[in-house]
Fold:
Amino acid sequence: MSDNEASKSPDSIKIQSPDDEYKKKLNRIKSKICYYKKKLQCGGVDAHKTKVIENDKERKEIIEKLETYRSILKLSEAKIKNLIE
Structure:
């Protein structure tokens, strides 16, 4: 069997666990929250001139929505872990 065939076999397919998926989503959300809170260490809004949100109210709403979404993901992750155990 060639390397190409081996890489396509079902045995070699890596299945991501729900934990990995949640961690990726949470990390993306954390990055976005950091960005919209204008933190320089994560390339805050001020650092990017192309996507500047000038309206403070709009920025706060985005942060609030992201934090709510993050909370929902964390609760979902905990619920799944409880079901598995």
